[in-house]
Amino acid sequence: ERVEGCRIVQKDDVLTLQTESATKLSDEDLEKRMNFVRHMLSSGLSVLYEDDHLAAVFKPAGVHTKKNTNFAYLSLEDSLPAILTPPSGDDASKEALPLPLAVHRLDVRVCGLVLVAKTRSALQNLGMQFEKRRVKKRYEAIVIGNPSEAVKLNDDIVLQEDGTLLVDSPIAMDGRGTLPARTTMSILESMPHTHWGTLSHLELRPETGRTHQLRLHTARIGAPMVGDDLYWDSGAKARTKMAADISETGDSCDLGIIKLLPPVRRGGGLYLQSRGATFQHPITGEIMDIEVPLIDRFGRLLQKARLALDYE
Protein backbone atom coordinates (compact mmCIF):
# COMPACT_ATOMS: atom_id res chain seq x y z
CA GLU A 1 0.00 0.00 0.00
CA ARG A 2 1.43 3.36 -1.02
CA VAL A 3 1.43 5.89 1.80
CA GLU A 4 0.71 9.53 1.04
CA GLY A 5 3.21 12.12 2.24
CA CYS A 6 0.69 13.61 4.67
CA ARG A 7 0.18 10.31 6.53
CA ILE A 8 1.22 10.45 10.19
CA VAL A 9 3.21 7.37 11.17
CA GLN A 10 1.71 5.46 14.10
CA LYS A 11 3.36 3.17 16.64
CA ASP A 12 3.81 -0.41 15.35
CA ASP A 13 3.49 0.67 11.70
CA VAL A 14 5.85 -1.33 9.46
CA LEU A 15 7.38 0.83 6.74
CA THR A 16 9.21 -0.22 3.60
CA LEU A 17 11.12 2.38 1.62
CA GLN A 18 11.63 1.80 -2.09
CA THR A 19 13.67 4.36 -4.00
CA GLU A 20 12.27 5.29 -7.37
CA SER A 21 13.64 3.24 -10.24
CA ALA A 22 15.00 4.82 -13.40
CA THR A 23 12.30 3.36 -15.64
CA LYS A 24 11.94 4.26 -19.30
CA LEU A 25 9.41 7.04 -19.88
CA SER A 26 6.77 7.02 -22.59
CA ASP A 27 7.23 9.52 -25.42
CA GLU A 28 4.47 11.70 -23.94
CA ASP A 29 5.96 11.63 -20.42
CA LEU A 30 9.44 12.25 -21.81
CA GLU A 31 8.24 15.35 -23.67
CA LYS A 32 6.48 16.56 -20.52
CA ARG A 33 9.65 16.01 -18.49
CA MET A 34 11.87 17.83 -21.00
CA ASN A 35 9.47 20.80 -21.14
CA PHE A 36 9.59 20.92 -17.34
CA VAL A 37 13.40 20.84 -17.34
CA ARG A 38 13.53 23.65 -19.91
CA HIS A 39 11.18 25.71 -17.75
CA MET A 40 13.30 25.02 -14.65
CA LEU A 41 16.51 26.02 -16.45
CA SER A 42 14.91 29.25 -17.66
CA SER A 43 13.84 29.92 -14.04
CA GLY A 44 17.38 29.58 -12.71
CA LEU A 45 17.94 25.85 -12.08
CA SER A 46 21.69 25.29 -12.07
CA VAL A 47 24.45 23.06 -10.69
CA LEU A 48 26.64 24.82 -8.14
CA TYR A 49 28.87 21.85 -7.25
CA GLU A 50 29.05 18.21 -8.30
CA ASP A 51 31.23 15.15 -7.75
CA ASP A 52 30.62 11.40 -7.88
CA HIS A 53 28.74 11.31 -4.57
CA LEU A 54 26.85 14.57 -4.17
CA ALA A 55 25.76 17.78 -5.82
CA ALA A 56 24.53 21.20 -4.81
CA VAL A 57 21.89 22.80 -7.02
CA PHE A 58 19.89 26.03 -7.16
CA LYS A 59 16.13 25.39 -6.82
CA PRO A 60 13.88 28.09 -8.29
CA ALA A 61 10.85 29.25 -6.31
CA GLY A 62 7.46 27.81 -7.23
CA VAL A 63 8.35 24.11 -7.34
CA HIS A 64 8.38 21.40 -4.66
CA THR A 65 11.71 19.84 -3.78
CA LYS A 66 10.18 16.36 -3.65
CA LYS A 67 6.93 14.79 -4.75
CA ASN A 68 4.09 16.06 -2.59
CA THR A 69 0.77 14.34 -1.97
CA ASN A 70 -0.24 15.05 -5.58
CA PHE A 71 2.07 12.87 -7.67
CA ALA A 72 0.80 14.41 -10.93
CA TYR A 73 3.05 17.45 -10.46
CA LEU A 74 6.75 17.32 -11.24
CA SER A 75 9.29 18.34 -8.60
CA LEU A 76 12.91 19.46 -8.44
CA GLU A 77 13.99 15.80 -8.13
CA ASP A 78 12.36 15.04 -11.49
CA SER A 79 14.74 17.50 -13.17
CA LEU A 80 17.95 16.27 -11.52
CA PRO A 81 18.77 13.38 -13.93
CA ALA A 82 18.82 15.88 -16.80
CA ILE A 83 21.41 18.18 -15.21
CA LEU A 84 23.60 15.82 -13.14
CA THR A 85 26.17 13.26 -14.28
CA PRO A 86 25.87 9.64 -13.04
CA PRO A 87 28.71 8.49 -10.75
CA SER A 88 31.65 7.24 -12.81
CA GLY A 89 34.24 6.07 -10.27
CA ASP A 90 34.39 2.34 -9.51
CA ASP A 91 33.32 2.66 -5.86
CA ALA A 92 30.76 5.38 -6.49
CA SER A 93 29.14 3.63 -9.46
CA LYS A 94 28.56 0.50 -7.37
CA GLU A 95 26.75 2.63 -4.77
CA ALA A 96 24.86 4.82 -7.22
CA LEU A 97 21.24 5.58 -6.40
CA PRO A 98 18.75 4.80 -9.19
CA LEU A 99 18.05 8.54 -9.33
CA PRO A 100 19.61 11.53 -7.51
CA LEU A 101 17.73 12.47 -4.33
CA ALA A 102 17.45 15.79 -2.49
CA VAL A 103 18.72 15.31 1.07
CA HIS A 104 16.46 18.02 2.52
CA ARG A 105 13.53 20.19 1.46
CA LEU A 106 12.99 23.83 0.67
CA ASP A 107 9.48 25.23 0.91
CA VAL A 108 7.81 25.54 -2.50
CA ARG A 109 7.98 29.37 -2.34
CA VAL A 110 11.66 29.44 -1.32
CA CYS A 111 14.53 29.43 -3.82
CA GLY A 112 18.18 28.62 -3.27
CA LEU A 113 20.64 25.90 -2.33
CA VAL A 114 19.59 22.24 -2.16
CA LEU A 115 22.02 19.40 -1.40
CA VAL A 116 21.61 16.24 -3.48
CA ALA A 117 22.91 12.70 -2.89
CA LYS A 118 23.98 10.55 -5.83
CA THR A 119 25.14 7.47 -3.88
CA ARG A 120 23.69 5.50 -0.98
CA SER A 121 26.59 6.27 1.34
CA ALA A 122 26.27 10.01 0.65
CA LEU A 123 22.51 9.87 1.28
CA GLN A 124 22.98 8.07 4.59
CA ASN A 125 25.84 10.27 5.79
CA LEU A 126 24.27 13.60 4.82
CA GLY A 127 20.98 12.51 6.34
CA MET A 128 22.77 11.80 9.60
CA GLN A 129 24.48 15.21 9.50
CA PHE A 130 21.11 16.92 9.10
CA GLU A 131 19.60 14.82 11.90
CA LYS A 132 22.43 15.76 14.27
CA ARG A 133 22.25 19.41 13.15
CA ARG A 134 25.81 19.42 11.83
CA VAL A 135 24.80 21.06 8.56
CA LYS A 136 24.87 24.82 9.07
CA LYS A 137 22.41 26.48 6.70
CA ARG A 138 22.24 30.18 5.88
CA TYR A 139 19.28 32.10 4.53
CA GLU A 140 18.64 35.71 3.63
CA ALA A 141 15.32 37.53 3.83
CA ILE A 142 13.84 41.00 3.52
CA VAL A 143 11.39 41.80 6.31
CA ILE A 144 9.13 44.66 7.34
CA GLY A 145 10.52 46.52 10.34
CA ASN A 146 13.75 46.37 12.31
CA PRO A 147 13.88 43.19 14.46
CA SER A 148 16.27 44.81 16.96
CA GLU A 149 13.42 47.12 18.03
CA ALA A 150 11.50 44.08 19.31
CA VAL A 151 14.18 43.02 21.82
CA LYS A 152 12.74 45.01 24.74
CA LEU A 153 9.13 44.40 23.71
CA ASN A 154 8.96 40.70 22.84
CA ASP A 155 10.02 37.77 25.00
CA ASP A 156 10.72 35.61 21.94
CA ILE A 157 13.82 37.58 20.90
CA VAL A 158 17.03 38.45 22.75
CA LEU A 159 20.24 40.30 21.87
CA GLN A 160 23.30 38.03 22.16
CA GLU A 161 26.80 39.04 23.22
CA ASP A 162 28.11 38.83 19.66
CA GLY A 163 25.52 41.34 18.46
CA THR A 164 23.26 38.81 16.74
CA LEU A 165 19.61 38.31 17.64
CA LEU A 166 18.22 34.99 18.84
CA VAL A 167 14.58 34.06 18.39
CA ASP A 168 13.67 31.19 20.72
CA SER A 169 10.01 30.35 20.10
CA PRO A 170 8.58 26.77 20.05
CA ILE A 171 6.55 25.64 17.03
CA ALA A 172 3.63 23.21 17.00
CA MET A 173 4.24 20.30 14.61
CA ASP A 174 1.43 18.04 13.38
CA GLY A 175 1.57 14.71 15.19
CA ARG A 176 4.71 15.68 17.16
CA GLY A 177 3.45 18.27 19.62
CA THR A 178 5.19 21.58 20.28
CA LEU A 179 8.93 21.44 19.67
CA PRO A 180 11.79 23.87 20.45
CA ALA A 181 12.75 26.19 17.60
CA ARG A 182 15.69 28.61 17.54
CA THR A 183 16.88 31.03 14.85
CA THR A 184 19.88 33.37 14.90
CA MET A 185 19.44 36.64 13.00
CA SER A 186 21.94 39.23 11.78
CA ILE A 187 20.77 42.57 10.38
CA LEU A 188 22.74 43.23 7.18
CA GLU A 189 20.97 46.49 6.34
CA SER A 190 17.97 48.45 7.55
CA MET A 191 16.43 51.52 5.92
CA PRO A 192 13.25 53.64 5.95
CA HIS A 193 10.61 52.79 3.35
CA THR A 194 7.69 54.98 2.26
CA HIS A 195 5.16 52.11 2.12
CA TRP A 196 6.37 49.63 4.75
CA GLY A 197 7.93 52.02 7.23
CA THR A 198 11.22 50.12 7.47
CA LEU A 199 12.83 47.40 5.38
CA SER A 200 15.51 45.14 6.86
CA HIS A 201 17.80 42.73 5.01
CA LEU A 202 18.56 39.78 7.32
CA GLU A 203 20.84 36.77 7.43
CA LEU A 204 19.05 33.88 9.15
CA ARG A 205 20.71 30.79 10.61
CA PRO A 206 18.24 28.16 11.83
CA GLU A 207 19.49 26.06 14.74
CA THR A 208 16.49 23.74 14.35
CA GLY A 209 14.55 22.70 11.26
CA ARG A 210 10.83 23.14 11.90
CA THR A 211 8.31 23.66 9.10
CA HIS A 212 8.16 27.36 8.09
CA GLN A 213 10.42 28.15 11.05
CA LEU A 214 12.04 31.26 9.58
CA ARG A 215 8.76 32.70 8.34
CA LEU A 216 7.08 32.07 11.69
CA HIS A 217 9.95 33.49 13.74
CA THR A 218 10.17 36.76 11.83
CA ALA A 219 6.38 37.18 11.99
CA ARG A 220 6.25 36.48 15.72
CA ILE A 221 8.52 39.44 16.45
CA GLY A 222 6.41 41.74 14.28
CA ALA A 223 8.70 41.67 11.23
CA PRO A 224 7.06 39.41 8.60
CA MET A 225 8.84 38.74 5.33
CA VAL A 226 7.91 40.76 2.27
CA GLY A 227 5.35 38.75 0.31
CA ASP A 228 4.47 36.33 3.14
CA ASP A 229 0.67 36.30 2.93
CA LEU A 230 0.50 33.16 5.10
CA TYR A 231 2.03 34.71 8.23
CA TRP A 232 1.29 38.41 7.64
CA ASP A 233 -1.56 38.31 10.16
CA SER A 234 0.77 36.75 12.74
CA GLY A 235 3.10 39.70 12.28
CA ALA A 236 0.20 42.13 12.67
CA LYS A 237 -0.94 40.41 15.88
CA ALA A 238 2.59 40.49 17.31
CA ARG A 239 2.76 44.24 16.68
CA THR A 240 -0.65 44.79 18.27
CA LYS A 241 0.40 42.84 21.37
CA MET A 242 3.66 44.77 21.75
CA ALA A 243 1.81 48.06 21.37
CA ALA A 244 -0.77 46.98 23.98
CA ASP A 245 1.96 45.95 26.42
CA ILE A 246 3.59 49.38 26.11
CA SER A 247 0.24 51.08 26.62
CA GLU A 248 -0.36 49.11 29.84
CA THR A 249 2.99 50.13 31.30
CA GLY A 250 2.41 53.77 30.43
CA ASP A 251 5.69 54.00 28.50
CA SER A 252 5.92 56.19 25.43
CA CYS A 253 7.30 54.49 22.34
CA ASP A 254 7.56 55.56 18.71
CA LEU A 255 9.20 52.40 17.36
CA GLY A 256 8.16 51.29 13.88
CA ILE A 257 7.94 47.65 15.00
CA ILE A 258 4.67 48.37 16.86
CA LYS A 259 2.96 50.36 14.09
CA LEU A 260 0.14 48.83 12.06
CA LEU A 261 1.28 46.76 9.10
CA PRO A 262 0.21 47.90 5.62
CA PRO A 263 -1.52 45.34 3.36
CA VAL A 264 0.63 42.39 2.35
CA ARG A 265 2.38 42.58 -1.02
CA ARG A 266 0.99 39.90 -3.35
CA GLY A 267 2.33 38.59 -6.62
CA GLY A 268 5.96 39.57 -6.13
CA GLY A 269 7.13 36.37 -4.51
CA LEU A 270 8.39 35.58 -1.01
CA TYR A 271 11.62 37.35 -0.10
CA LEU A 272 13.40 34.38 1.45
CA GLN A 273 16.35 32.55 -0.12
CA SER A 274 18.54 29.65 0.95
CA ARG A 275 21.99 31.21 0.52
CA GLY A 276 24.48 28.58 1.62
CA ALA A 277 25.45 25.59 3.72
CA THR A 278 28.52 24.29 5.53
CA PHE A 279 28.86 20.53 6.00
CA GLN A 280 31.35 17.67 5.96
CA HIS A 281 31.84 15.82 2.70
CA PRO A 282 30.33 12.37 3.29
CA ILE A 283 33.28 10.51 1.71
CA THR A 284 36.43 12.64 2.03
CA GLY A 285 35.57 14.32 5.33
CA GLU A 286 36.50 17.72 3.85
CA ILE A 287 34.58 20.73 5.20
CA MET A 288 32.46 22.06 2.35
CA ASP A 289 31.12 25.62 2.26
CA ILE A 290 28.83 26.26 -0.70
CA GLU A 291 27.10 29.57 -1.36
CA VAL A 292 24.49 30.72 -3.87
CA PRO A 293 24.47 34.27 -5.31
CA LEU A 294 21.63 36.45 -4.06
CA ILE A 295 18.85 36.57 -6.65
CA ASP A 296 18.27 39.79 -8.59
CA ARG A 297 14.87 40.74 -7.18
CA PHE A 298 16.35 41.07 -3.68
CA GLY A 299 18.85 43.61 -4.94
CA ARG A 300 16.23 45.46 -6.97
CA LEU A 301 13.90 45.90 -3.98
CA LEU A 302 16.72 47.12 -1.75
CA GLN A 303 18.08 49.46 -4.43
CA LYS A 304 14.66 51.02 -4.99
CA ALA A 305 14.42 51.68 -1.24
CA ARG A 306 17.90 53.26 -1.22
CA LEU A 307 17.10 55.48 -4.20
CA ALA A 308 13.85 56.65 -2.60
CA LEU A 309 15.75 57.47 0.58
CA ASP A 310 18.41 59.41 -1.35
CA TYR A 311 15.73 61.31 -3.26
CA GLU A 312 14.03 62.40 -0.05
Automatic annotation (TrEMBL):
GO terms for molecular function: pseudouridine synthase activity; RNA binding. It comes from the Eukaryota. Pfam families: PseudoU_synth_2. One of its GO terms (biological process) is enzyme-directed rRNA pseudouridine synthesis. Coiled coil: none annotated. PANTHER family: MITOCHONDRIAL RNA PSEUDOURIDINE SYNTHASE, RNA PSEUDOURIDYLATE SYNTHASE DOMAIN-CONTAINING PROTEIN 1. Belongs to the pseudouridine synthase RluA family. This is Pseudouridine synthase RsuA/RluA-like domain-containing protein.
